[in-house]
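Record format v2
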Amino acid sequence: MKKLVAGTTMVELLVVIGLIGLIGVAGMRFFTSVNTSQKAFSQQAILQMESRKAFDQIIDQIREGTDVIRPVTGETLHYMVFRDLINQVSMLYLEPNKEESNRLKQRVYRLISYCNDFSGLYKKENEKILHNSIKQVRFSSLSPSSVQVNATVVSDKGEYQFLAHVGLLNVGGIE
Amino acid sequence: MALPFTIVAMVVVIGFIMTMSRLNQGVKTQIFHTNNHQLSFLMAYSALSRVCAKMHAFSWASRPFAAAPYAENKVALQGGHYDLLVENSKNREFQADVYVRTHLAGISRMYFWRVRFNDDLLDVSNQIFVEAFLNGDPKDFPVAGKANPFATKVEDLLAQRSANQKKSDLLAREVIKLKKPNDIIKELNGRPIEAPDGSLPPTPEDLALVARVPVPLPEMPTLPGSEKPSAPGPNPALPPSPYDSMVGINMNSQMSKVVKSSESAFQNTDQAWKQIEEHGVGGIEAARESWIKANEARESAFKEMGNLISDAKSGISDAPSTAAAEAIEEMVSQTIVAGIQNLGKAMDRGMDQFNDDAGLNYLGSLQTAESVAKLATDWEKAVNGITAEIERMTSLANQIGSFAKAPEVEAALTETLAQAQANLDEMKALVEAAKAKLEELIKKEEEEADQQMQEEQEGSGDGA
């Protein structure tokens, strides 16, 4: 009597190949989707990173200040005037950035810091561009030595809103 | 049957985990680096808080760093560590310097605080004040018992702060009254803010914020007469000196006036010459008004510069430190040089008329002794004017001769005075040329007159 050997039938093979194909296609689609969302997430993270670097500078500058001149306590303005470590009067303000506005098709501003050194003259080196693409900024003074900064940074990667409460650490003669 | 299926499934799962892990790691690294700055500051602030707590816990006399600097190394915190050094501030009672160097994720940062301890048993909640806070270079972290250049830098900055105090107070008082950003930036001598491009509309939210006017500041009513102190105060016979406490304030205002008036002298001179260049002789009448304004502005600039130097000398003698005195000297010399430069530019603008031998060519075109004499007189007046102006400029330069100056300021002053002298030499050469031509024309006209007389005599003789 001839012994039957167990083997794989053509139908079984086709079913396995079909299943592997289906799983492969589903897997590829899943990978593509994950990759796309990761890229978007990564771009958002880069925007955040760039914005936070700029705001770290702003915070460092304000932190070395002695007192807030404008806005006064309880007031919110789109600019800020304060005194720095050596009692020079500095101003943070927005100036329209026409090139960036045209590129991004919306009105954006440069955030500029200018410091008066009592020479009675305008000096280019006292003017610093802290960020090139700001949609809006607000400074709310919570006390004579602290301020809340709220700004929206915009780029072609999206928008990023920043909120920080900064204390001026050079209390100096204020008691 | 199950084996190939299992292998494929495992490959898919491993690939998925690896891809996700790699992508997440990249994002995590980016976010971690952005957090590093804030975390480092918080670590340093924690260290400062510990120091302050210790100062509160002991009396000032028993502070941990009373006899020698107190140091801690590699204190672990928040996944990184910090080094701390606290020492008494040199030559300052009840003050301490706190240095914290943080190390987090391979990045080192240094923070410095100078704190003042207010030894007041009645107000224990308000005993420590930050006199100065600075971000420093981690390399400047001091070693106990060795020279500390960072402390010297802090002393210099505090001297500058002290020297700037009164000027800063006055400026703050002016700025706080202003409501528009452009007015404020103008008061700070900054560049005017550019107008927005009208093609892209602002958001309604922006408009609302820009339209928001700063709140008016409350004004303190003057005290009624009955509440004024009746005591005359110490030594009422002596009037208060206008300089003893207001030097910085006067100087700040005077420096602005010097710059404004000297700039006005140049701008009006330029305007006058433009009128003449565009309309020829017809523009003289229109230019006259600008000339008058330019002369007034020039006189005002010289007067303000003299006042500024004289006040600055009082301010320098009252300065709290050598560094503060040098800061005043540098500011004043810079302003005076800027004023002299503007007046020099105004003089140069007038001399532009003689470029490319235009003066000699014009002289050559004149054919009568009378017209040349008039030109020579005008040019001599110009020589006298330039000579007087150079003398006044040199006198100002001599007055600030001993003042500290930045090298570029020194160079600008030398260059301006040299240019003014060159203008004077050029003008003198023109006067000499005009005089020579005048002599030549007088001689020629005399000869012609003699010849004409001779011919007339001969004619009358023939007629007789």
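The beta strands of chain B are 70-77, 80-88, 95-104, 107-117, 128-136.
Residues 239-249 of chain B have pLDDT under 50 and may be disordered.
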